[in-house]
Amino acid sequence: MEKTELNFVCTGMKTGKKIPIEYTGRGQNISPEFIIKNLLPNAKTLAITLEDLTHPIKKFTHWIIWNIPATDKIEKGIPAGKKVLGNAVQGVGYGFHQYAGPKPPKGKKHIYLFTIYALDCELNISANSMKGTFLRRAKGHIIQSGNVIGEFE
């Protein structure tokens, strides 16, 4: 079965453009609001990753969260903690169980990738897991995914 791309917007951000300061480690360091446009009806949960594509460690994970109830709007400012938004789990990204916005070295522009995954189930994974574990366990359950790329200096 061919997957339908998941279309979404990161409020205040356009693909390929600068990430708003409030979503960065130099601003309020809060997760953005996401508006999802074409979520399939059989989606049960959503997951989000934020990766730094420019970091010396390839695809360095700043944030990972899964088991967000399927919805067309994810509010900004998801709080720190292993369990949030009901059953949602924040795994280990940037060494923490929370959103860690872009904060590259001063004067260096980095490229960041937000990816949202729609899954047909809830995953039973330890909050101490990282992106690799999430992707292995989600394999075969991801029914849609999409991304938005931004930059920050």
From TrEMBL:
Judging by the UniProt lineage, the source's domain of life is Bacteria
Which residue ranges run through the membrane?
Answer: none
Name under which the protein is recorded? PBP family phospholipid-binding protein
Q: Which PANTHER family does the UniProt entry name for this protein? A: PEBP (PHOSPHATIDYLETHANOLAMINE-BINDING PROTEIN) FAMILY PROTEIN, UNCHARACTERIZED PROTEIN YBCL-RELATED
Q: Which InterPro entries match?
A: PEBP (IPR008914), PEBP-like_sf (IPR036610), YbhB_YbcL/LppC-like (IPR005247)
User: Source taxonomy lineage?
Assistant: Bacteria, Bacillati, Bacillota, Clostridia, Lachnospirales
Species assigned in the record = Faecalicatena orotica
